[in-house]
Amino acid sequence: METISASVGAGGANRPQDVIKVQNLLNQNRARVPDAREITVDGLVGPETINAIINFQRHVVGLSNPDGRVDPNGGTLRALNQGVNAPTIPAPLPAPPAAPGISVVLRFPLNARPRLSYKTGGRYFGAPRTTSTGGHRSHAGCDLIVPKGTPIVAVADGEVIRNPYYFYSGTYALEVRHTGGFVVRYGEISTAAQGVSAGNSVARGQVIAFVGKLESGSSMLHFEMYAGTASGSLTVRGNPPYQRRSDLLDPTPYLDQATLT
Protein backbone atom coordinates (compact mmCIF):
# COMPACT_ATOMS: atom_id res chain seq x y z
CA MET A 1 0.00 0.00 0.00
CA GLU A 2 1.44 3.35 -1.07
CA THR A 3 1.70 6.25 1.35
CA ILE A 4 2.53 9.89 0.65
CA SER A 5 4.06 12.50 2.96
CA ALA A 6 1.98 15.45 1.77
CA SER A 7 -0.90 16.33 -0.55
CA VAL A 8 -0.57 15.88 -4.30
CA GLY A 9 -2.57 17.78 -6.92
CA ALA A 10 -4.41 21.08 -6.92
CA GLY A 11 -3.10 23.18 -4.01
CA GLY A 12 -0.90 20.35 -2.73
CA ALA A 13 2.72 20.39 -1.61
CA ASN A 14 3.49 18.24 -4.66
CA ARG A 15 6.75 16.73 -3.48
CA PRO A 16 8.22 14.88 -6.47
CA GLN A 17 8.49 11.51 -4.74
CA ASP A 18 4.83 11.73 -3.68
CA VAL A 19 3.72 12.88 -7.14
CA ILE A 20 5.40 9.88 -8.76
CA LYS A 21 3.57 7.52 -6.40
CA VAL A 22 0.22 9.11 -7.21
CA GLN A 23 0.88 9.14 -10.95
CA ASN A 24 1.74 5.43 -10.85
CA LEU A 25 -1.41 4.69 -8.85
CA LEU A 26 -3.55 6.64 -11.32
CA ASN A 27 -2.12 4.64 -14.21
CA GLN A 28 -2.73 1.37 -12.39
CA ASN A 29 -6.37 2.39 -11.83
CA ARG A 30 -7.12 3.35 -15.45
CA ALA A 31 -9.49 0.44 -15.99
CA ARG A 32 -11.80 1.88 -13.33
CA VAL A 33 -12.22 5.26 -15.10
CA PRO A 34 -14.07 5.50 -18.44
CA ASP A 35 -11.75 6.44 -21.33
CA ALA A 36 -8.80 7.06 -19.01
CA ARG A 37 -5.41 7.35 -20.69
CA GLU A 38 -1.98 6.65 -19.26
CA ILE A 39 -0.40 9.80 -17.83
CA THR A 40 3.26 10.75 -17.77
CA VAL A 41 5.13 9.71 -14.61
CA ASP A 42 7.55 12.61 -14.14
CA GLY A 43 7.03 13.87 -10.58
CA LEU A 44 5.49 17.09 -11.89
CA VAL A 45 1.90 18.18 -11.29
CA GLY A 46 0.23 19.74 -14.32
CA PRO A 47 -3.20 19.69 -15.95
CA GLU A 48 -2.75 16.06 -17.03
CA THR A 49 -2.25 14.78 -13.47
CA ILE A 50 -4.88 17.03 -11.93
CA ASN A 51 -7.47 16.02 -14.53
CA ALA A 52 -6.67 12.34 -13.91
CA ILE A 53 -7.23 12.85 -10.18
CA ILE A 54 -10.52 14.68 -10.80
CA ASN A 55 -11.80 11.95 -13.13
CA PHE A 56 -10.86 9.25 -10.62
CA GLN A 57 -12.61 11.13 -7.80
CA ARG A 58 -15.72 11.62 -9.93
CA HIS A 59 -16.05 8.13 -11.39
CA VAL A 60 -14.60 5.92 -8.65
CA VAL A 61 -14.72 7.81 -5.34
CA GLY A 62 -18.11 9.26 -6.28
CA LEU A 63 -17.42 12.90 -5.40
CA SER A 64 -19.89 15.31 -6.98
CA ASN A 65 -17.40 18.18 -6.55
CA PRO A 66 -13.91 16.65 -6.89
CA ASP A 67 -11.04 18.84 -5.67
CA GLY A 68 -8.25 17.31 -7.77
CA ARG A 69 -6.10 16.59 -4.73
CA VAL A 70 -4.87 13.38 -3.10
CA ASP A 71 -4.33 13.77 0.65
CA PRO A 72 -2.12 11.49 2.78
CA ASN A 73 -5.03 10.15 4.85
CA GLY A 74 -7.85 10.88 2.43
CA GLY A 75 -10.44 8.75 0.72
CA THR A 76 -8.94 9.25 -2.73
CA LEU A 77 -5.62 7.66 -1.72
CA ARG A 78 -7.48 4.76 -0.05
CA ALA A 79 -9.51 4.20 -3.22
CA LEU A 80 -6.37 4.30 -5.37
CA ASN A 81 -4.71 1.69 -3.17
CA GLN A 82 -7.82 -0.49 -3.18
CA GLY A 83 -7.85 -0.43 -6.98
CA VAL A 84 -4.27 -1.63 -7.14
CA ASN A 85 -5.11 -4.52 -4.83
CA ALA A 86 -8.36 -5.34 -6.63
CA PRO A 87 -6.93 -7.92 -9.07
CA THR A 88 -6.05 -10.17 -6.14
CA ILE A 89 -9.63 -10.15 -4.90
CA PRO A 90 -11.58 -13.22 -6.00
CA ALA A 91 -14.23 -12.43 -8.58
CA PRO A 92 -17.72 -12.14 -7.08
CA LEU A 93 -19.98 -15.14 -7.28
CA PRO A 94 -22.82 -15.10 -9.81
CA ALA A 95 -25.60 -12.74 -8.89
CA PRO A 96 -28.51 -14.17 -6.90
CA PRO A 97 -31.52 -15.17 -8.98
CA ALA A 98 -34.36 -12.78 -9.67
CA ALA A 99 -37.11 -12.72 -7.10
CA PRO A 100 -40.25 -14.66 -7.86
CA GLY A 101 -43.36 -12.54 -7.68
CA ILE A 102 -41.79 -9.12 -8.37
CA SER A 103 -43.58 -8.49 -11.62
CA VAL A 104 -44.41 -4.82 -11.03
CA VAL A 105 -42.22 -2.19 -12.66
CA LEU A 106 -40.71 -0.17 -9.84
CA ARG A 107 -40.67 3.59 -9.40
CA PHE A 108 -37.05 4.75 -9.56
CA PRO A 109 -36.02 5.70 -5.97
CA LEU A 110 -34.94 9.22 -7.02
CA ASN A 111 -36.74 11.88 -9.03
CA ALA A 112 -34.01 11.78 -11.69
CA ARG A 113 -31.47 9.18 -12.74
CA PRO A 114 -27.94 9.92 -11.50
CA ARG A 115 -25.35 11.15 -13.98
CA LEU A 116 -22.91 8.42 -12.95
CA SER A 117 -23.87 4.86 -13.82
CA TYR A 118 -24.63 2.44 -10.99
CA LYS A 119 -23.16 -0.32 -13.18
CA THR A 120 -19.53 0.90 -13.27
CA GLY A 121 -16.80 2.48 -11.14
CA GLY A 122 -17.24 0.39 -8.00
CA ARG A 123 -20.88 1.42 -7.66
CA TYR A 124 -22.23 -1.78 -9.21
CA PHE A 125 -23.73 -4.81 -7.49
CA GLY A 126 -20.97 -7.36 -6.85
CA ALA A 127 -18.09 -4.85 -6.96
CA PRO A 128 -15.13 -5.92 -4.78
CA ARG A 129 -14.93 -4.34 -1.35
CA THR A 130 -12.36 -4.45 1.46
CA THR A 131 -13.77 -4.97 4.96
CA SER A 132 -12.70 -3.07 8.07
CA THR A 133 -10.69 -6.12 9.13
CA GLY A 134 -8.81 -6.35 5.84
CA GLY A 135 -10.93 -9.10 4.33
CA HIS A 136 -12.91 -9.02 1.12
CA ARG A 137 -16.59 -9.05 0.25
CA SER A 138 -18.84 -8.15 -2.67
CA HIS A 139 -20.92 -4.99 -2.87
CA ALA A 140 -24.48 -5.87 -1.92
CA GLY A 141 -26.35 -3.08 -3.70
CA CYS A 142 -26.20 -0.31 -6.28
CA ASP A 143 -24.90 3.16 -5.41
CA LEU A 144 -26.81 6.09 -6.88
CA ILE A 145 -24.53 9.15 -6.67
CA VAL A 146 -26.47 12.34 -5.91
CA PRO A 147 -25.98 15.36 -3.61
CA LYS A 148 -26.68 15.23 0.11
CA GLY A 149 -30.30 16.03 0.88
CA THR A 150 -31.70 14.63 -2.37
CA PRO A 151 -35.21 13.24 -1.70
CA ILE A 152 -35.61 9.45 -1.85
CA VAL A 153 -38.98 8.02 -2.87
CA ALA A 154 -40.61 4.65 -2.30
CA VAL A 155 -40.26 2.31 -5.27
CA ALA A 156 -43.71 0.80 -4.61
CA ASP A 157 -46.46 0.78 -2.01
CA GLY A 158 -45.36 -0.81 1.23
CA GLU A 159 -44.82 -0.67 4.98
CA VAL A 160 -41.81 0.52 6.96
CA ILE A 161 -40.59 -2.48 8.93
CA ARG A 162 -37.80 -0.87 10.93
CA ASN A 163 -37.03 2.61 12.20
CA PRO A 164 -33.97 4.30 10.67
CA TYR A 165 -30.77 2.88 12.17
CA TYR A 166 -27.05 3.54 11.91
CA PHE A 167 -25.68 2.01 8.72
CA TYR A 168 -22.27 3.19 7.55
CA SER A 169 -19.77 6.07 7.88
CA GLY A 170 -22.10 8.55 9.57
CA THR A 171 -25.23 7.56 7.63
CA TYR A 172 -28.42 5.61 8.33
CA ALA A 173 -30.73 3.09 6.63
CA LEU A 174 -34.47 2.56 6.27
CA GLU A 175 -36.13 -0.81 5.52
CA VAL A 176 -39.46 -1.13 3.72
CA ARG A 177 -41.43 -4.26 2.82
CA HIS A 178 -43.14 -3.51 -0.48
CA THR A 179 -46.22 -4.97 -2.11
CA GLY A 180 -45.46 -8.53 -3.14
CA GLY A 181 -43.27 -9.12 -0.11
CA PHE A 182 -39.88 -7.90 -1.37
CA VAL A 183 -37.78 -5.73 0.93
CA VAL A 184 -35.68 -2.68 0.10
CA ARG A 185 -32.96 -1.26 2.29
CA TYR A 186 -32.54 2.43 1.47
CA GLY A 187 -29.03 2.97 2.79
CA GLU A 188 -26.67 5.89 3.42
CA ILE A 189 -29.51 8.28 4.19
CA SER A 190 -29.34 11.26 6.53
CA THR A 191 -32.84 10.92 7.96
CA ALA A 192 -36.28 9.59 7.20
CA ALA A 193 -38.99 11.98 6.05
CA GLN A 194 -41.41 13.29 8.64
CA GLY A 195 -43.96 10.67 9.65
CA VAL A 196 -42.00 7.74 8.19
CA SER A 197 -41.31 5.18 10.90
CA ALA A 198 -41.84 1.51 11.69
CA GLY A 199 -45.42 0.41 11.03
CA ASN A 200 -46.26 3.32 8.72
CA SER A 201 -47.58 2.68 5.23
CA VAL A 202 -45.84 4.38 2.31
CA ALA A 203 -47.09 4.97 -1.22
CA ARG A 204 -45.25 4.55 -4.50
CA GLY A 205 -43.40 7.81 -5.25
CA GLN A 206 -43.78 9.16 -1.71
CA VAL A 207 -40.71 10.91 -0.28
CA ILE A 208 -39.52 8.64 2.52
CA ALA A 209 -35.96 9.78 3.27
CA PHE A 210 -33.08 12.04 2.23
CA VAL A 211 -29.58 11.20 0.99
CA GLY A 212 -26.83 11.47 3.60
CA LYS A 213 -23.13 12.27 3.38
CA LEU A 214 -20.36 9.81 4.19
CA GLU A 215 -17.40 10.81 6.31
CA SER A 216 -15.31 10.64 3.12
CA GLY A 217 -17.44 13.43 1.65
CA SER A 218 -19.30 11.24 -0.84
CA SER A 219 -23.10 11.21 -0.96
CA MET A 220 -25.36 8.57 -2.48
CA LEU A 221 -28.33 6.28 -2.06
CA HIS A 222 -27.11 2.74 -1.42
CA PHE A 223 -29.97 0.58 -2.73
CA GLU A 224 -30.37 -3.07 -1.67
CA MET A 225 -33.19 -5.51 -2.53
CA TYR A 226 -34.32 -8.76 -0.90
CA ALA A 227 -36.91 -11.29 -2.08
CA GLY A 228 -38.55 -11.40 1.36
CA THR A 229 -38.32 -15.19 1.52
CA ALA A 230 -35.91 -15.20 4.49
CA SER A 231 -36.11 -13.61 7.93
CA GLY A 232 -33.80 -11.85 10.33
CA SER A 233 -31.21 -9.12 9.91
CA LEU A 234 -30.33 -8.10 6.37
CA THR A 235 -26.62 -7.93 7.22
CA VAL A 236 -25.10 -11.36 7.95
CA ARG A 237 -21.33 -11.06 8.36
CA GLY A 238 -20.75 -14.81 8.13
CA ASN A 239 -22.51 -15.23 4.78
CA PRO A 240 -20.02 -14.65 1.94
CA PRO A 241 -19.49 -13.15 -0.50
CA TYR A 242 -22.02 -10.35 0.07
CA GLN A 243 -22.31 -10.65 3.88
CA ARG A 244 -26.06 -10.29 3.53
CA ARG A 245 -29.19 -12.38 4.11
CA SER A 246 -29.71 -15.37 1.82
CA ASP A 247 -32.58 -13.77 -0.15
CA LEU A 248 -30.46 -10.87 -1.41
CA LEU A 249 -31.26 -9.78 -4.98
CA ASP A 250 -29.30 -7.98 -7.66
CA PRO A 251 -31.25 -4.70 -7.94
CA THR A 252 -29.69 -3.73 -11.28
CA PRO A 253 -32.40 -5.07 -13.65
CA TYR A 254 -35.13 -3.60 -11.47
CA LEU A 255 -33.47 -0.18 -11.47
CA ASP A 256 -32.91 -0.42 -15.22
CA GLN A 257 -36.62 -0.98 -15.82
CA ALA A 258 -37.86 1.48 -13.18
CA THR A 259 -39.83 4.54 -14.25
CA LEU A 260 -39.70 8.12 -13.00
CA THR A 261 -43.44 8.28 -12.46
Write a structural description.
The chain is built from four helices and 13 strands. Strands 5, 6, 7, 8, 9, 10, 11, 12 and 13 form a nine-stranded antiparallel beta sheet that branches. A two-stranded antiparallel ribbon has the order 1-2. Strands 3-4 form a two-stranded antiparallel ribbon. The radius of gyration is 19 Å and the shape is elongated. The chain is of the alpha+beta class and 261 residues long. The protein folds into two domains: 8-88; 128-257, Glucose Permease (Domain IIA). Residues 17-73 form the Peptidoglycan binding-like domain.
Task: Please describe the topology of this protein.
Blueprint: E1 8-9, H1 16-28, H2 47-61, E2 69-70, H3 75-85, E3 128-130, E4 136-138, E5 142-145, E6 151-153, E7 158-168, E8 171-178, E9 183-192, E10 201-202, E11 207-211, E12 220-226, E13 248-249, H4 252-257
Antiparallel strand pairs: 1-2, 3-4, 5-12, 6-11, 7-8, 7-10, 8-9, 9-11, 9-12, 12-13
Helix pairs in contact: 1-3, 2-3
Jot down its keywords.
261 residues; two-stranded antiparallel sheet; Cell_wall_metabolism_enzyme; elongated; 13 strands; Glucose Permease (Domain IIA); Peptidase M23; 2 domains; alpha+beta; PGBDSf
